[in-house]
Amino acid sequence: MKFRITPIDGGVCAVDGIYASGVNAGFKQDGYDLGFIRSDKELDVAYLFTTNKFQAAPIKYVLNRGIKTTNFILANSKNANAMTGDEGIKDIEEILEFLSQKISIKNPIMSSTGVIGVRLDKEKIKKGIEKFDFNEKNSNKFAKAIMTTDSFEKEIAFEVEGDFGKFRIGGVAKGAGMINPAMATMLCFITTDANIPQNEMQEILKEVNEVTFNAISVDGDTSTNDSVFLMTTRDGGYEREAFKEALKQVMQKLALDIVKDGEGATKAVAFVVTGAKSKEEAKIVAKNLTTSLLVKTALFGEDPNWGRIASTVGASNVECDEKRLKIAFENIVVYDRGNIIFDEETERKAHEIMKRREFKIYVDLGIGEGAFTGYGCDLSYDYVKINAEYRT
C-alpha cells in the first residue's frame, strides 16, 4: 500500500471539528495554565496510563467510568491532583459539573500535571473555564497550557493520502521531567479523523507506544499522571499500515521533543542496541543506558567513557559476552569484541561527536537478532537546580 505523509499546521486542531485553546487561570504568574480540547461530535477514545501504583485522580476517574467516547478534555498544569484520595475525584466531578453548565459535554475527561499531593483549586479552574472561547482553534495555546517545566511547546500534525482516501492526525504533548515511561509518559493528546475500527485503536496505540514513549527516559522516574489519549472523529479514510506509520511519526516526534527538552538537558542521545538474544533483552539494555546516572553524567561532560556503557550492559542481567560486545560513538568504534580501540586519536574523535546536541551510541551484543533503540539525555547541574526548587 502506497501512501504519502505530509506535515501540516494545526496540531490537534488540524482535524476538522476539533477545537482547542488555553487561558490563564492563575496557577502561573503569566502564560496559559488551563486548556481544553473539544469536538462537535463524540470521539472514540483509546488511552494508556501510567503503571505507577499511585495513579492520579484524573486517571482513576476515567478508569472508574470505563470511558470509551468523549467530546471534551479539560487539562490543567501546576497541580497533578495525585495522592488526593476520594476528594481528588470529587473535585473533578464538581469541576466537570460546572463545565456542563457552560457547554454540552459527553463523558468529559480531565487531565492534570504538576505538584503531587495538593488538592485542586476549584475556584481558579472555574474562573478559568469562564474565560474559554469554546469555538477557538488554537492548538498552540493548549500546548502551552499543559507545560510545567517544559521550555517549549510540543505539537505536530500530518495529512495522509493514499488509495484509501485521506485522513489527518495531530498531537500535542508535555513533559521534561519525571520521565521514565512505563506505558506512555507525561501528557499526550492525539486527534485524528481516520476511520479506525474501535477494536484496533487500543492495539495500535499500545504497539506504537512501545517504540516511542516507552523508549525514552529523562531521569528514571515514572509519573503518577502519565497519560496518552488517541481520539477519532471517523470522518476520514483509513488503512491500517498508513495509520500506524502516521501515528508512529506523531508519537516519535513528540517523544524525542521530550528528550530534547529534558530538564537541564544539553544532549539528546539515541542508544541503538542490536545483537541481543531477544527484543526484550535489547530493550532492557537500552533502557538501562538511558537511566544510568554514570552514563548520563559522562554525556554531560562529553566524556567518551565507554567503560560506563560496558558496565551498564553487564549489569543489565541479559545474556552478553565481552568478547562479542561492540561499542561505537556514531561511526567511531571504541571497543570491538574484546579489543580496546581507544587510543588518543580515537578518544579525540569520540569526544568531538559528543559535543553535538544529538548523536547515537551503538551497542552490539553479538548474541542474537534482538534490537531496540532507547532515547535519553544527559544529567546537568540545571536538572538538580530545577527539581530542588520545583515547588518554589
From TrEMBL:
Q: What class of enzyme is it?
A: transferase
Catalysed reactions, as listed in the record: L-glutamate + acetyl-CoA = N-acetyl-L-glutamate + CoA + H(+); N(2)-acetyl-L-ornithine + L-glutamate = N-acetyl-L-glutamate + L-ornithine
Give the Gene3D superfamilies listed for this entry: ArgJ beta chain, C-terminal domain, L-amino peptidase D-ALA esterase/amidase
Q: Where is the active site?
A: T185 (nucleophile)
Tell me, what's a Pfam family for it?
ArgJ
Q: In which pathway does it act?
A: Amino-acid biosynthesis; L-arginine biosynthesis; L-ornithine and N-acetyl-L-glutamate from L-glutamate and N(2)-acetyl-L-ornithine (cyclic): step 1/1; Amino-acid biosynthesis; L-arginine biosynthesis; N(2)-acetyl-L-ornithine from L-glutamate: step 1/4
Q: Which residues bind substrate?
A: T148, K174, T185, E263, N387, T392
The record's Gene Ontology biological-process terms are:
L-arginine biosynthetic process; ornithine biosynthetic process
InterPro entries associated with the record: Arg_biosynth_ArgJ (IPR002813), ArgJ-like_dom_sf (IPR016117), ArgJ_beta_C (IPR042195)
Q: Which GO terms describe its cellular component?
A: cytoplasm
Any one Gene Ontology MF annotation carried by this entry is: L-glutamate N-acetyltransferase activity, acting on acetyl-L-ornithine as donor
The record's keywords, sorted A to Z, are: Acyltransferase, Amino-acid biosynthesis, Arginine biosynthesis, Autocatalytic cleavage, Cytoplasm, Multifunctional enzyme, Transferase
Q: Where is this site: Cleavage?
A: A184, T185
Residues annotated as site: Involved in the stabilization of negative charge on the oxyanion by the formation of the oxyanion hole? T113, G114
The protein's name is Arginine biosynthesis bifunctional protein ArgJ
- Species annotation: Caminibacter pacificus
Organism lineage reads as: Bacteria, Pseudomonadati, Campylobacterota, Epsilonproteobacteria, Nautiliales
